[in-house]
Design goal:
31% of the residues lie in helices and 28% in strands. It has 299 residues and is of the alpha/beta class. The longest helix has 16 residues. The radius of gyration is 20 Å and the shape is globular. The termini are close together. The structure holds ribose-5-phosphate. The site of ribose-5-phosphate has 13 residues, from β12 and α7.
Length: 299
């Protein structure tokens, strides 16, 4: 298999090439002076299974490069194109509301039309999002990696809390990976209002030490609201564990003021340059993706 990796995933690609035995693919994506995108590949791909390790998250140029690269690989005769998108952007836009865009379905169509045969993502937000794709989407669960990290931080006795109903299954997977007996996951009912996010009463009991597990930390609004409620309830040791750390803007930094002790996050999205790397515990998803690629190589 030949791996075409976007620059932002350079170190992840190097690790995977070595351990899975992938051939590095050469390509260059640039813009003409008028801004139109152009991709050129420098590796023979006819009859080959090509992997693209990249992103479709903003800025939009990333998405366009990923799709144009896939189209170019197919045009040059690639037998199969698998897109490895550690963070499946747009997966949150998965609800069909009258008069509003259904961006997950749009992305799914663009991927298929660009020649992508299959997507491998980590924690792809929801089953509803996956179901909007007509090509297979594998969603790798980070639960084992999270469990290992919790054990490493001495947090196996903490209560795992879901910041909304959608996060319950994710929390349960972490409990299972920790080999803890099945238990109800305490969760909040999250409401989006014109002024932001609010959380209504915690459904379930919590210990004084809590780990909130969610898929995305974007602006931090969801986690801030959930943490405020936990502090009100007397919890004094809060940790946060998320799959995709987008860290948009500055609002999420208020989590520290609320007494959050640690934020653990996987490396599906490179940490923004303005985020102090020493304040976040980064967890590598490379072993997860490698395992999936080894299985693909055997097909
Ligand atoms: C929502 O469905 C997601 O699971 C996250 O809770 C949410 O998107 C996080 O966004 P923010 O950090 O902006 O609240």
């Amino acid at each position: 298999m030949i791996l075409f990796a976007s620059e932002v995933y350079g170190s992840m690609a190097a690790a995977m090439e070595k351990s899975v035995g992938l051939l590095p693919g050469k390509f260059c994506a640039k813009r003409f002076e008028n801004g139109e995108l152009h991709v050129e590949i420098g590796t023979q791909v006819a009859g080959e299974h090509c992997l693209i390790l990249g992103s479709i998250a903003p800025p939009d140029g990333q998405m366009l490069s990923t799709f144009l690269l896939a189209h170019t690989l197919k045009k040059e005769g690639a037998k199969r194109v698998t897109a490895i998108l550690p963070y499946l952007a747009y997966a949150r836009h998965d609800k069909n509301k009258p008069g509003e865009s259904l961006a997950t379905a749009w992305i799914a169509e663009l991927a298929r039309a660009s020649g992508i045969d299959q997507v491998i993502a980590v924690d792809a937000h929801s089953e509803r999002a996956r179901a909007l794709f007509s090509i297979p989407v594998t969603s790798l669960s980070p639960a084992e990696i999270f469990a290992e990290a919790l054990a490493g931080c001495g947090l196996t006795g903490a209560t795992i809390v879901a910041p909304d109903e959608g996060a319950i299954a994710r929390c349960q997977a972490v409990r299972t990976a920790l080999r803890l007996a099945a238990a109800e996951i305490p969760y909040y009912q999250k409401h989006r209002t014109a002024t932001g996010i609010t959380h209504a009463g915690l459904i379930g009991r919590v210990a004084r030490q809590v780990v909130i597990v969610d898929d995305i930390l974007d602006t931090g609004g969801t986690l801030l609201s959930a943490c405020e409620k936990l502090v009100e309830a007397g919890v004094d040791d809060i940790s946060i564990m998320v799959t995709h750390g987008l860290f948009t803007g500055d609002r999420w930094k208020k989590l520290w003021q609320l007494g959050v002790r640690r934020i653990l996050c996987s490396d599906t999205v490179p940490l923004p340059a303005d985020v102090d790397a020493s304040s976040i515990v980064m967890l590598s998803v490379v072993p997860l993706i490698e395992r999936e690629l080894r299985a693909l190589a055997e097909i």
